[in-house]
Write a structure and sequence with these properties.
Length: 337
């Protein structure tokens, strides 16, 4: 147990002491990430005062419209991470290929994948958004790691986290020993530990799904949601509530705080288009699944545990069902029956 009020830096130094590889590099990398998040937090607060809302007029590798802030925050992350010798390469939802460091930069021991501004379309309407990141060990002796080096199952993640830019800025981190939350204190400029050993309640009566896609879902999801909506009069015998922010970070943060189940399942349109889901395995599903499992929840596709999937490509998409253990198990069982 740590004292509420210690800084993120103090916390990660203490955590690193628990491992036998206490070189300080990992601590320094987490600090670089925290610096990037603080910069992004500051930008999101300025909003249109500095003209950063709206479209960038470009598309990412998935053909999705890029917002100006997608491009800006991607650069903030690269700048914060490439200069200090802690990463060997980066991969981002906003870049088609692996980002190789310029030749003159020192290579470090880690690979980082990130979604620099998840839910970025919510930025224009002033709703919570966030940054998601995942840390893997880099292959030894490789100057420019390739896509295959990033395509490791989620169980291989060394750490994962997100930073939510809402009424307050909160960085949520797991290094594989539980989940800890740090709130940004704007006066001191430090992330301060505000909650540790975060636990997701095992039961919930709240679901999060984009209901407008209902007609395209597979039968198990149709069944689960029908039963929730039937409420007290239905087989569940209890009324359910629904929330859908449309920023995964905000929906997952709510689930970490008060429980719930989040679903972005595969549907008929995706199958027709030859994709397996909407959310990206390396930048969204894996880090969020590690956090959720470390908080006592579950994360599955309906067919398998997300963290066991061996990625086939950098931008692979997967169905995501995560949150309170008993509800996720129920949805999983509907897929099997
Ligand atoms: P993004 O990374 O391009 O912002 O897209 C991911 C977002 C998630 O944050 C959110 O859960 C989902 O897309 C919302 O999708 P939809 O608009 O279909 O409800
Ligand atoms: Mg995203």
């Amino acid at each position: 147990m740590y004292e509420i009020g210690i800084t993120l830096t103090q916390y990660i130094i203490e955590e690193q002491r628990k491992t036998d590889q206490a070189s300080g590099e990992f601590t320094a990398l987490l600090n670089d990430i925290a610096v990037a998040c603080k910069k992004i937090s500051s930008l999101t607060r300025k909003g249109n005062l500095v003209g950063i809302l709206g479209s960038a007029g470009s598309a990412n590798v998935q053909g999705e419209e890029q917002k100006k802030m997608d491009v800006i925050t991607n650069n903030v992350f690269i700048e914060a991470l490439q200069n200090n010798g802690h990463v060997a390469a980066l991969a981002s939802e906003e870049m088609d290929e692996v980002y190789h460091l310029p030749d003159n930069k020192i290579r470090g021991s880690y690979l980082v994948t990130f979604d620099p501004l998840d839910g970025s379309s919510n930025m224009d309407v002033n709703v919570s958004i966030g940054t998601i990141f995942s840390i893997l060990r880099a292959p030894e002796g490789v100057k420019n790691p390739a896509a295959e080096d990033f395509c490791k199952a989620g169980v291989k993640q060394i750490a994962a986290g997100y930073c939510i830019y809402g009424p307050s800025t909160i960085l949520v981190l797991t290094t594989g020993y539980g989940v800890t939350m740090f709130t940004l204190d704007r006066e001191s400029g430090s992330f301060i530990l505000t909650q540790e050993n975060v636990q997701i309640p095992v039961d919930t009566c709240e679901f999060a799904i984009n209901m407008s896609n209902q007609r395209f879902w597979e039968a198990p999801i149709q069944r689960y949601i029908d039963e929730c909506i039937a409420g007290k009069e239905g087989v569940r015998g209890v009324d359910f509530n629904m929330r859908w922010v449309g920023s995964m970070v905000a929906d997952v943060h709510r689930i970490l705080t008060r429980g719930g189940i989040f679903m972005y399942p595969i549907d008929a349109r995706m199958k027709k288009a030859g994709t397996e889901g909407k959310l990206r395995l390396l930048y969204e599903a894996n880090p969020m699944s590690m956090i959720v499992e470390q908080a006592g929840g579950l994360a599955v596709t309906g067919y398998e545990r997300i963290l066991d999937i061996i990625p086939k490509s950098l931008h692979q998409r997967v169905p995501v069902i995560l949150g309170s253990k008993n509800e996720v198990e129920r949805v999983n069982s509907y897929h099997k029956s």
